[in-house]
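so the lab meeting is tmrw and i was supposed to have these ready like two days ago... anyway. pasting both below. for each one the top line is the aa sequence and the line under it is the structure tokens. i havent really looked at them closely yet so no promises
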Amino acid sequence: MAALTKDRNTPERTGKDFSFPVKASTRIFAGSIVVLASGNAEPGKTGTGLVVVGRADAHADNRNGAAGEIDVPVRAGVFRFENSASTDLITRSDIGSDAWIVDDQTVAKTDGSASRSKAGRIVDVDDLGVWVQLG
């Protein structure tokens, strides 16, 4: 495509709200970390190569459906998730570092010896959990 030679009406999205097709035989709970694997949404889990797209805005039950039969609404932003434990516990000194996915509601300080995908950037830690920038 050639460079512009006149004004262009470029479409815009908010950059926060999206919808993704749900993987076959999968249920995603509202409020969970959502990842893409092979283009389909699934709940966050321990594994490599997963791409975090945000937090599920609604329950999506595709346990009896084919891949892409339903979509899950997802929002990008900063959300509070459960903190891991022991040596993977995230503290305030980790703010600004990456958080790693343990499951659909838990993040950890490390990549679990290269067994986890990145959740996002840690922006705060409080008594109730870890605030992570997703999407």
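ok protien two:
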Amino acid sequence: MIKIEQVSKSYFVNGRVISALQDVSLHVKEGSIYGVIGYSGAGKSTLLRLVNGLEKPDKGEIEVQGKLLTKLPENELNALRKNIGMVFQQFNLLESQTVFQNIALPLILTKVSKKDQEDRVNTLLDFVDLREKANVKVSQLSGGQKQRIGIARALATNPEILLCDEATSALDPHTTDAILDLLVKVNEQFGVTILLITHEMDVIRKICDQITIMEAGKIVEQGDTLEIFKNPQQEITKRFVETVVSNRVPRIISEQLLPTDTVAKLIFVGRHAGDGILHSLALVFNIKISILAASISELRNDLLGILIVKIEGDYFNFSAIEEYLLEQNVSIERLGEF
């Protein structure tokens, strides 16, 4: 659906060259929700502008729905953009216009008949659950309601791709959850492929199938969301994951541990993956297991459980424990000294 191959982009600012993207490659599968995360200056917004054809890369290729953007004439590029919806951080709505008028704007620009405009707008108002606000001016809406209208407007022309630029960063946590649920609904009900950028790992956790982590214009890690959460490799990825998944022993407990204590992290996937595993592990290896910390995180399509435990016993083989757990689809990692 979207293929970005070895793309680089630079800008000339105040007499010097600023590199925004360096050899970036990623593939967004049709029908998926793909998240790109990074701190400010990572190059995320530049990436969206390139995918939307608003700018051209200095190097590399961008393919959208089988078409190379760098080789499309302007008229074909404009036609392709009609199949790409855009949701913005600050909504980008016409505050003095009504909800109905805002959603209808893309239809007016594409010369859709008034009857079809009315039908489509009312359908979308029902979809975002704001039919009663049709004739209300946007300036009178809450932030969450404005973003619902922004999503409805982005869907007006029946796009197959939706680009989301920090769509929830201006919202409170409760409203953020509601907007994320709506984006999942867009994806599942209409089959729309979503590419979103964010600096919030909780957004990735809740709705994304795949993820790319960026820093200073470069990709530092990418893969399936579950695998990234299970086993982050790079330091920046670990920091992002730790904002939503607890991987640490509480300080008050760690201060009581000895350097000789065996402390390990167990990772479970799925609703029943860890059922009874500690009990059976203790019996098989004649060991005592104490839980030091625990967390369960709900990803879009899975549950991820993490246990930090202390293992005690006269004699035990950690490698044998690791092998036994892998047979039960549970991974284990020996943690460092405390």
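from a quick look at the 2nd one: The chain is about 35% helix and 30% strand. The radius of gyration is 24 Å. will dig more after coffe
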